[in-house]
């Protein structure tokens, strides 16, 4: 099986000169806002519960398993503007142009928005970084390590996502009216960007034609408020839909939340673990091109930083566990050198497309410790992932 773990491996696909970013390249990174106290967690769990508690409790499942992942800067409250200012500087120095905040709506009001509202938007250096919102309408689970007899995770829904046409409209209209007027809201071709995480819920409530009408109506509202419209980007992850349905639904572009997640099960082929370099090679050799040709809409290539969700699960009694155990496969050896090679390959891929193709690259994820894909420094790799990104982007 092919691997991509270094710049030497990269040159099987592209020359280093072909992997230099242009001034037109825009790099956006997803941000998971669950590492700060929030009203939602206060209601569900009490106290100052954050997902750092799951990260703390993680333990190795097998020899060499790198758990728990420990933040080099300590446990940060990401609703603290001083904390976020440090993150903004690190992200901007590495070449990231925009952070895309996962954004939730439960019980008719925003949820888990404290990191964006109290942290990012009040950071003294917020002008160094653009931001956008990814509308995440999925149900919110209780985080628990309990398993059912068949080995599946017992995670009853604690909150239901928007379940009515009216609630969907209210939540998306809130995004438009609250955030678009911010001077550093991320735009493409002069239009504010909104990422939609789960097309399935919209399809169920509206139908394909109804989704298109909804998006057009939201664009009309944005224009009435003085904006040029809206660029709607469909995130393939979690959509449960064929990519070609995005066209009929009125989206402007599509892409992954994390390319490593998109390929890791296929590459593992039943193994409980798979090396990052194997997944990276599959992304470069097949995944981007496959998705790029699946729809006439513009496709934004994505790079993933890793994948290990074991902090969210109870460890199996033996190793390897039987069957399709939750959280598997685990991506191992997610090194900065392999990540840099994947970033450079993505730039090479973007540069190889026709000049009319948008030069946009997305990254999953900036801070999702409990899914094992993050760029923030840890006690094992230090600043390695951010430095790798900076080296690839020439920052």
Count of folded domains: 1
CATH architecture name: Alpha-Beta Barrel
Looking at this structure, what is the CATH superfamily?
Answer: Glycosidases
Q: SSE order, as H and E?
A: HEHHHEEHEEEHEEHEHEHEHEEEHEEEH
What proportion of the residues is helical, as a percent range?
Answer: 25-40%
Major pleated sheet: 11 strands, mixed
Low-pLDDT segments, ≥5 res: none
Strand percent estimate: 15-25%
Which radius of gyration do the C-alpha atoms yield?
A: 20 Å
Name of the level-1 CATH class: Alpha Beta
3D architecture notes:
There is one protein chain. α6 (165-179) crosses α7 (199-224), α9 crosses α10 and α11 (336-352) packs parallel to α12 (384-393). α7 links the parallel β8 and β9 (231-235). It is built from 12 helices and 17 strands. The strands form 4 sheets. Strands 1, 2, 3, 4, 7, 8, 9, 10, 12, 13 and 15 form an 11-stranded mixed beta sheet that branches. The chain is globular and about 55 Å long. It has a single domain (7-393), classed as Alpha-Beta Barrel (TIM Barrel), CATH 3.20.20.80. The chain is 34% helix and 16% strand.
TL;DR?
With 395 residues, the protein is an alpha/beta fold.
Give short descriptive properties of this protein:
single chain; 395 residues; alpha/beta; TIM Barrel; eleven-stranded mixed β-sheet; two-stranded antiparallel ribbon; 12 helices
Task: Detail the topology: elements first, then pairings.
Layout: H1 7-10, E1 26-31, H2 39-44, H3 52-57, H4 81-94, E2 98-106, E3 109-111, H5 114-119, E4 130-135, E5 140-141, E6 157-159, H6 165-179, E7 187-188, E8 191-196, H7 199-224, E9 231-235, H8 245-248, E10 253-255, H9 259-268, E11 273-275, H10 276-292, E12 299-300, E13 302-304, E14 330-332, H11 336-352, E15 360-364, E16 367-368, E17 373-374, H12 384-393
Parallel strand pairs: 1-2, 1-15, 2-4, 4-8, 8-9, 9-10, 10-12, 11-14, 13-15
Antiparallel strand pairs: 2-3, 5-6, 7-8, 16-17
Helix pairs in contact: 4-12, 6-7, 9-10, 10-11, 11-12
